């Protein structure tokens, strides 16, 4: 994610992710309440996986603190204390995150009438959630929002040339992606998500829960997904830079995004096969591409403005991957091109992302 607090930073361009946390608040609240009332821990360990450096992890923590304060209103004895761990990859801007936490703690956000916030402690935890992060049976609640569509790596074979790169000038699955390359993306999802479930199962206490929210696909057709459309435009923007001589063709052909948007059925299949979690609920909802467009109609009111908003959001998410592979100089021309393609797409129709939200219980 783009670091800092500037115009192009993740923290200034994460309104879509914020709305998703607000949308999934009832799921977070139910899971928190159920774990707390069933287990009555003296210290409740809560983890936000893929917290980033923006304001959204603070929103998650304040939701949890509000629920626990409410639960403890009338209880006697020692009040529960909360230990939050905020996890992300080591490259995450943890300094920015802890500056934001300091402001949050002194802003009085927690002071709601009738609520005495429980004592809480907040620690950062750098590391990949595709590894073990906690001792066995130590965590009560895991949360992860807008992360698990990211794979642990680019699917095998896609970024190495035997004779020709497998996914040509695509960066994700599009109509010209071969069935073999599609299978590589699907297998990477299956492998990563199964591993993630196994690791968290080890770390959760019995009765512990996970609330997982990530981008997915509305239809079963793997070529017709909402992410396919969005990243299809990223690929077309890169292709136009190749034509302008700003990007080498081979550089584009060796670039693929470590991402996969599964359908609800695919997610359910992995959870069922794992036999280690029961599914309390799963739902899919849709969100406009433009994070500032809350309208529900089929028309986009201002496609030029919306396309800029989409471009800023996607730039803040892809910045480090793009710089790492192509260098920094292509960022501006790439996202000018991308914004123009998004504007054309939005002039034709309102375009949405599919978000999958679920609550799982360790069995
Ligand atoms: C789009 S951001 C979402 C951040 C935040 N949860 C929110 O709702 O705004 C995705 C985050 O997932 C993190 N991430 C991706 N893969 C990860 C991994 N394997 N382990 C830990 N964090 C990861 C990224 O670094 C990034 O900060």
Write the layout of secondary structure elements.
Elements: H1 15-23, H2 25-39, E1 43-49, H3 56-72, E2 81-88, H4 94-106, E3 120-126, E4 139-145, H5 179-203, E5 204-216, H6 226-243, H7 249-253, H8 264-274, E6 277-288, H9 303-326, H10 331-348, E7 352-362
Parallel strand pairs: 1-2, 1-4, 2-3, 4-5
Antiparallel strand pairs: 5-7, 6-7
Helix pairs in contact: 2-3, 5-8, 6-10, 9-10
Give an overview in words:
The longest helix is centred in the middle third of the chain and has 25 residues, at 179-203. The model has no long low-confidence stretch (mean pLDDT 91). This protein has ten helices and seven strands. Strand 1 (43-49), helix 3 and strand 2 (81-88) form a beta-alpha-beta unit. With 363 residues, it is an alpha/beta fold. Helix content is 43%, strand content 18%. The protein is globular. It has helices spanning 15-23, 25-39, 56-72, 94-106, 179-203, 226-243, 249-253, 264-274, 303-326, 331-348, and strands spanning 43-49, 81-88, 120-126, 139-145, 204-216, 277-288, 352-362. The chain has a single domain (15-362), classed as Rossmann fold, CATH 3.40.50.150. Bound molecules: S-adenosylmethionine. Residues 1, 14, 17, 21, 50-52, 54, 56-57, 87-89, 92, 128-130, 145-147, 150, 152, 317 line the site of S-adenosylmethionine.
């Amino acid at each position: 994610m783009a670091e800092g607090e500037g115009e192009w930073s993740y923290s200034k361009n994460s309104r879509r992710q914020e709305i998703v946390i607000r949308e999934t608040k009832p799921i977070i609240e139910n899971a928190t309440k159920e774990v707390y009332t069933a287990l009555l821990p003296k210290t409740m360990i809560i983890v936000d996986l893929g917290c980033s450096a923006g304001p959204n992890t603070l929103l998650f923590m304040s939701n949890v603190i509000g629920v626990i304060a409410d639960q403890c209103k009338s209880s006697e004895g020692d009040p529960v204390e909360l230990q939050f761990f905020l996890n992300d990859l080591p490259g995450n801007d943890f300094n920015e995150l802890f500056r934001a936490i300091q402001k949050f703690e002194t802003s009085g956000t927690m002071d709601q009438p009738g609520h005495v916030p429980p004592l809480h402690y907040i620690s950062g935890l750098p590391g990949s959630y595709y590894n073990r992060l906690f001792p066995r049976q130590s965590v009560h609640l895991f949360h992860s929002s807008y992360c698990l569509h990211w794979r642990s790596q680019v699917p095998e074979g896609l970024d190495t040339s035997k004779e020709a790169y497998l996914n040509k000038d695509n960066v994700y699955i599009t109509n010209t992606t071969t069935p073999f390359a599609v299978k590589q993306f699907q297998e990477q999802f299956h492998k990563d998500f199964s591993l993630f479930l196994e690791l968290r199962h080890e770390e959760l206490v019995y009765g512990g829960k996970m609330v997982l929210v990530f981008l997915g696909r509305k239809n079963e057709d793997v070529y017709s997904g909402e992410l396919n459309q969005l990243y299809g435009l990223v690929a077309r923007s890169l292709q136009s830079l190749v034509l302008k001589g700003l990007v080498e063709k081979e550089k584009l052909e060796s670039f693929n995004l470590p991402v996969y948007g599964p359908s609800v059925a695919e997610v359910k299949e992995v959870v069922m096969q794992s036999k280690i979690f029961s599914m309390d609920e799963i739902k899919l909802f849709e969100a406009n591409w433009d994070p500032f467009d809350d309208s529900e109609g089929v028309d986009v009111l201002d496609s030029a403005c919306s396309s800029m908003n989409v471009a800023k959001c996607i730039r803040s998410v892809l910045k480090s991957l793009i710089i790492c592979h192509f260098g920094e100089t292509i960022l501006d021309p790439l996202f000018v091109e991308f914004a123009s393609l998004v504007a054309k797409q939005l002039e034709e129709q309102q375009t949405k992302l599919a978000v999958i939200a679920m609550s799982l219980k360790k069995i």
